[in-house]
Amino acid sequence: MEKTKKLTAVLKKRKEVQEQLDAIVKSITAVGDQVKKLQEENNIEMAELISLIEVTPQPTASSSLLNVISPVMAKLVLSSMQSYIFILKVSDYFVPMGEIRIRPASTFHPEFVQKLGQFCYNSPKNFVSTVAKAQVGVFVSISMTHASFRPTFAAANQTTRISALNMGEVGVIFKKKNQPVGVTSNTITDWNFFIPLNPATKQQKKIVSSAAAELFGHIIDTCSSPNKAVTEMSKSQKNERGRYTMSLESHQ
């Protein structure tokens, strides 16, 4: 009887140890998930910095490095004030087929990002959208129009323009309507999301480059394979592209 009590006490102690170990494993898993998220964010930041370095002019006798960097730093500070994540949800004949989660690049027009983020914050907006152009495995261009979203913002500083060229990047092609004489800003009536997939040949890379899509941001959770929804849309024939509908939502 005494022996049974001792064994029961030992078993109880072991169960307590097991619960503690389970809690430790849970904590380690949570830390691992957080580290993975930080690694992903760091990779995106490095990609943006590499792109920025590639397009930043080298200082000359007539222009100092400070003068080149100052406009860029101003954009970085302003864009950090509003940090949005955009979710582009894609449906095929109104049946959900996937979503594209986009983190805006700090080098993209912060005024446009802020206005778009506010417009669809925590509330999916159904844009009049369709697959405008596509090539299997190369790119998808999605037209985006909404009667209630026609923002105006100052002309961009083309010195720091970065193009969307690689898998995991998302570009924007603006279609601007000029304002009356004397007004310095433009109204954006409609625009396209341009998403490269995996252009392999020289000709395919030339097609992506010629689109001149300005880097809007990076697709989250895209490491070595293209987003499934993007891949499916790239396969669509011209007479099939009207089947896709999109909504856009933002979160912070």
TrEMBL record:
Top-rank taxon, per record: Eukaryota
GO biological process: cellular response to amino acid starvation; positive regulation of autophagy
Region (Disordered): 228-252
Protein name: Uncharacterized protein
Lineage, opening ranks: Eukaryota, Metazoa, Ecdysozoa, Arthropoda, Crustacea
